[in-house]
Amino acid sequence: MKKKAIWSIVLALVVVGVCLGIFFNKRQQALPVKQNKQNAVGLSIKKNEHNNQNDNPESEQPSSSDEYSTDEWMLMGYMAYAHDNYVQSRHIKNNAELVDDVQEDLSDGDLTADKKSNTTYTLTNKFGSVDVEVEDDDVKVTDDGTTVNSKSELKEKFASYSDEIKGMTKSIKNGGNDNSTKDSKGSSNSEKSGNKDSASTSSNESIPNFSVKQLAVLAGFYRGGDESWVTDCINKRFYSSYWYNVLWLQ
Fold it and tell me: In the predicted model, what is the mean pLDDT of residues 80-100?
């Protein structure tokens, strides 16, 4: 009787152990399957995000042409063209020194920039002049030959100095504005006219308002008459003979 009870207990323990083993085994197998599903979903989401960015590659990248004014593009194109000249004459070592030297030349008047139209300029220094034209995608500098720099290249070189370059645009003269030229000519003409009027007025004001007798006295002395002769003329009661003697007697 005791042996049967012991075998029953042992058998029950074995069954319980087997059941527990099967349970834990199935649970462990289930966990990796769940993680794989999560990973698969995560990869799918990332792939979709990546595809969305590729669908609109320029949606978050504004055109470089819109970042700077035409005047700023012109200055960047000129500095790229003049870089080697400044290396030889000023011994500059980097773009920062180039920007400083060009800014100094514009400020001192050693370099002048004249705007001929909305997109064309002429820059002049003691060595001569060059023409600069700002186009849609590049900047062209014409001297003996033609130098072309793309706007993307110019942005890469000078984007760090945008504040300095923007300040340099104040030195650009607007020489292509016909209205301003006419206005300046008109103003100059009016100034000349005004100067003539003022000169005429000043000359009139410089002549005293003499009386008839005073003019006669001056005329008498001008004719070389002595004091007694002029006095005698003044004392004449008949003005006809007075005028005849002083003004008209030859």
Answer: 94
